[in-house]
Amino acid sequence: MPVLPGPFQTAVALRTIVLLFICTQIYTLLLVIFESYQKINQIVNATEIFDQFITGMQQTSWLEYIGVFCGIGSVWFSKKENILVYPVGLVNTILYIYISIKGKLFGEASVNLYYTVMSIYGWILWSKRDAVKHEAILHITYSSKKEWLQQLLFFAVFYVAIYFSLTWLKNTFAPGAIPWADAFASATAYTGMWLMAKKKIESWIWWIATNCASIPLYFIKGYVFTSVQFAVLLILAFAGLFEWIEKRRQLNKA
């Protein structure tokens, strides 16, 4: 009789598949960026990219500036496990619903609508206090094997749904859409926000993937300052991951 893989082996295999998928998506995205900045028989040089960056910054709207600063502030508060992550984040998500629709980033628009709903949900969860000790009930934890399987399935379902939805939009009235890249950025963000509301350390891993995809995605669309925001958020995501790991370690010692 063949030995069937157990839950642990299955989880490891699925994680490996997802990591390979993420690496493939990012690599393909980098190729798209490279090709999109080519001219006929000439690759765009560093000076031209810098000039485009400056032009993009000059064309940035005040709404985008507000959204960017609120987004960075929200992640900073999240890193510190401060409940202000949610009210500040709501300003960011509401503004970016409008910005994303305007830029035909419909997947990202859906993400920010989802962020708005999940921010309210997370605000409620993070606000709950113990009736006796008056301490927060929700604590930073690692995902169990079962939860890892759930979040991988969660990501896969949303990726497929968003990809085919955006492909339909691209073929009908939004030719500027990039279905696979937008779906990847969106599905990883959906997963990260869901886990963040439950204070799961793995949420930062999904945020890292989201930021890696969103930096070039928004740059290509002309939202230069927003792409800068995601570069900053990428750094904060790594910092948040290490800080939450340390906080979990301190909780284990207590």
Radius of gyration, in Å, reads 19 Å
Q: What separation lies between the terminal Cα atoms?
A: 47 Å
Order of helices and strands: HEEHHHHHHHH
Shape: globular
Total discrete domains? 1
Oligomer: single chain
User: How many strand segments?
Assistant: 2
Our count of helices gives: 9
Largest sheet: 2 strands, antiparallel
Q: pLDDT below 50 for ≥5 consecutive residues: which ranges?
A: 1-5, 36-44
Could you say which structural class the secondary elements and strand pairing correspond to? mainly alpha
Looking across the biggest beta sheet, what order are the strands in? 1-2
Helix content: over 70%
Strand content: under 5%
Quote the average pLDDT.
79
Describe this structure in words.
The protein has one domain (60-129, 139-253). Helix content is 77%, strand content 2%. α1 (7-36) runs parallel beside α8, α6 (145-172) runs antiparallel to α7 and α8 packs antiparallel against α9 (224-253). A hairpin with a 2-residue loop joins β1 (38-39) and β2 (42-43). The N and C termini lie far apart (47 Å). The chain is mainly α and 254 residues long.
